[in-house]
Structure formats: structure tokens, C-alpha cells
């Protein structure tokens, strides 16, 4: 189990140091901002959604702790190529994973690299860091046009 935890930590550290899809995107047709006042994490998410309601590109910028940055980085990688409905299902599954929702018996199954966040549920103060990008993407998907706060 320690080897698995070390692997998870290394993936999170890698995505924090070298975030994928970091930076703004002038071609985005959906965006949203998110803020975690407890940790100070803030980000802006940029999505390009095509006419068939598929996410063809995703970027983010901002600043945050390692978990927040890694979560946004892995999320943007995972969302590319997903339909809006698939992205919303991913949001629910990821949220259940990091909150330790026992009603989801297959919490991490099929989530790929996102499973690295499975241990976050043991640290309630970090749940908001891990979910900030996801609540922000949900706002962008729903075109809510308001700043998302974890409070």
C-alpha cells in the first residue's frame, strides 16, 4: 500500500510542478472562475465545446496548492474528447471519490489517473482544494457565468 501511496504522491507532485494545459485559451467558448477562500486557490477554466457538445480543448490558469493545481491539470486532460453529459458524470464520480461517498461502490473504477485523489477523503480540509476545478468546470458546462466558491 505504501508503494501505491508513493505513486499517487508522485503523480500529484508531477502535475503540480508541470501542469498540463496551463494558460488561457483565446479560442474558448465557455469559461468560469473558481475561488477557495480557505486555501487561497483561484483559477479560471477555459473550455472549447464543439457543435456536437463535446469538449475539444480545456485549459486553466491561476494559482493554488499542489492538490488544486494537480486536480485542474488532470481534469483538463481527462475532459478532452468527452461529451458534456460524460463530463458531468465525471464530475459526480470524482466528487464521490474525494468525499468518500459510500453510496458509490465503484468510486475510483474507470477514473484512470484521477484515482490518485482517492486518499483526499481522509483529509477533509483538502477536499475543497481537489474539487475546486471540478466545481468550476461544472459551472462552465452549465454556462452559469458566476464565480464559484468552495464556501
Summarize the structure in words:
There is one protein chain. This protein has a single domain, classed as Sufe protein. Chain: A, CATH 3.90.1010. It is α+β, with helices and mostly antiparallel strands and 151 residues long. The chain is globular, with a radius of gyration of 14 Å. It starts with a helix and ends with a strand. The protein has four helices and four strands; from the N terminus they run αβββαααβ. Helix 1 crosses helix 2, helix 2 (66-79) runs parallel beside helix 4 and helix 3 (84-99) runs antiparallel to helix 4. A four-stranded mixed beta sheet has the order 3-2-1-4, with helices on one face. A hairpin with a 4-residue loop joins strand 1 and strand 2 (41-49). The mean pLDDT is 90.
Mean pLDDT value: 90
- Beta content comes to 15-25%
Per DSSP, the total helix count is: 4
| CATH topology category name | Sufe protein. Chain: A
The strand line-up of the biggest sheet is 3-2-1-4
Regarding CATH, which class? Alpha Beta
Instruction: Domain count, please report it.
Output: 1
Could you say what the CATH architecture is? Alpha-Beta Complex
Helix content: 40-55%
Uncertain stretches of 5 or more adjacent residues = none
Overall outline:
globular
Distance between the termini: 33 Å
Number of strands: 4
Largest sheet: 4 strands, mixed
Provide the structure class. Answer: alpha+beta
Encode the helix/strand succession as letters: HEEEHHHE
Radius of gyration: 14 Å
